[in-house]
C-alpha cells in the first residue's frame, strides 16, 4: 500500500516536472501591451540573446489558432513558441519574435464560419475593413519595423489554423511588407493571391486527414499563388489531422528557409 502510494506520488511529481520544463521556455517571452487609442493588444516578445540595439535583427510575427484566444497573454504560446527558443535555433537565427493574442470573441481574418458540417465551411470576403485584432497587429508591426534595430528587409509572418487564415489575410493587406510567410492548416480567398503571389514567398502546410479545416482550402490557396505567378512550397502530410503544426515545426528546413528570404525591392 505504501509502495503504491509512493509510486503514485512519483508519477504526479514527474508529470509536474515535465509540464514545468515544457512551459519554461515561455518565460523567455516578455509580456507586452500595445495600446492604440482605446484599444489594447496583448502580446509576448522574444528578443535575441545578447540583444544589442546597435545591431539589426529580423522579426517574426506568429498568429495563433482559435483555441488559444483569450486575454491571459499566455495561451498564444502553446504552439510554435518553443521552436524559436531552442538553443540551436536561437544561436543560428537571432530574431525578434512576436506572439500577439486575439480576444475570444474575434478572429484574425474576416471569415464567415459555418460550423454545421465537418470540416467547417469558410468564406473570406474581400474589400472590407480588417478585424480589430488584425488591425492592431498591423499597427504594432508597423511600429516595430520602424525601430532602428529591425531589419526591414527581413520581416516574416506565419500562423496555424485561424492564424494560418490570418497569415493569408495580413499578407493580402500588406503585400510589400513581408519577406516570407508560412501557413499551417489555414485557409483564405484564392482571389486575394493576386496581391502577393509574386512578392511574398509562401510555404503552405496541411494534413490530408484534417477534419476541421479542409485541406482543399490550402490546395486552392497554392493554386491561386501559382496562377498569379508565385512559386510556393506545399507540404501535405498524408497521416495528419488538424494538428499538422507538429509536422510543420519538425521540418528541419522551416527556419533556414524562412530566414533565407529577403524582401524583394521594386
UniProtKB/TrEMBL annotation:
The keyword Signal applies. InterPro entries: AB_hydrolase_fold, Plant_Biomass_Hydrol_Est, PLipase/COase/thioEstase. The keyword Nucleus does not apply. Residues 137-249 form the Phospholipase/carboxylesterase/thioesterase domain. Signal peptide: none annotated. GO terms for molecular function: hydrolase activity. It comes from the Bacteria. Keywords: Signal. This is Prolyl oligopeptidase family protein. It comes from Jejuia pallidilutea.
Amino acid at each position: 500500500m505504501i509502495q503504491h502510494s509512493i509510486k503514485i506520488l512519483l508519477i504526479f511529481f514527474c508529470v509536474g516536472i515535465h509540464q514545468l520544463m515544457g512551459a519554461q521556455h515561455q518565460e523567455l517571452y516578455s509580456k507586452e501591451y500595445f495600446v492604440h487609442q482605446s484599444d489594447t493588444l496583448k502580446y509576448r516578445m522574444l528578443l535575441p540573446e545578447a540583444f544589442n540595439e546597435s545591431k539589426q535583427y529580423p522579426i517574426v510575427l506568429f498568429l495563433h489558432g482559435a483555441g488559444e484566444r483569450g486575454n491571459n497573454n499566455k495561451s498564444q504560446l502553446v504552439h510554435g513558441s518553443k521552436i524559436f527558443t531552442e538553443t540551436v535555433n536561437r544561436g543560428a537565427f537571432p530574431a525578434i519574435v512576436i506572439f500577439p493574442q486575439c480576444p475570444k470573441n474575434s478572429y484574425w481574418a474576416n471569415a464567415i464560419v459555418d460550423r454545421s458540417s465537418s470540416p467547417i465551411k469558410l468564406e473570406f470576403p474581400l474589400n472590407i475593413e480588417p478585424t480589430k485584432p488584425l488591425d492592431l497587429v498591423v499597427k504594432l508591426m508597423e511600429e516595430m519595423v520602424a525601430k532602428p534595430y529591425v531589419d526591414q528587409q527581413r520581416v516574416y509572418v506565419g500562423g496555424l489554423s485561424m492564424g494560418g487564415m490570418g497569415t493569408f489575410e495580413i499578407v493580402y493587406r500588406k503585400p510589400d511588407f513581408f519577406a516570407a510567410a508560412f501557413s499551417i492548416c489555414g485557409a483564405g480567398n484564392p482571389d486575394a493571391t493576386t496581391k502577393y503571389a509574386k512578392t511574398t514567398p509562401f510555404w503552405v502546410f496541411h494534413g490530408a486527414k484534417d477534419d476541421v479545416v479542409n485541406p482543399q482550402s490550402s490546395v486552392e490557396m497554392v493554386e491561386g499563388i501559382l496562377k498569379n505567378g508565385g512559386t510556393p512550397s506545399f507540404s501535405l502530410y498524408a497521416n495528419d489531422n488538424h494538428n499538422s503544426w507538429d509536422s510543420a515545426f519538425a521540418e528541419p528546413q522551416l527556419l533556414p528557409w524562412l530566414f533565407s528570404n529577403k524582401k524583394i525591392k521594386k
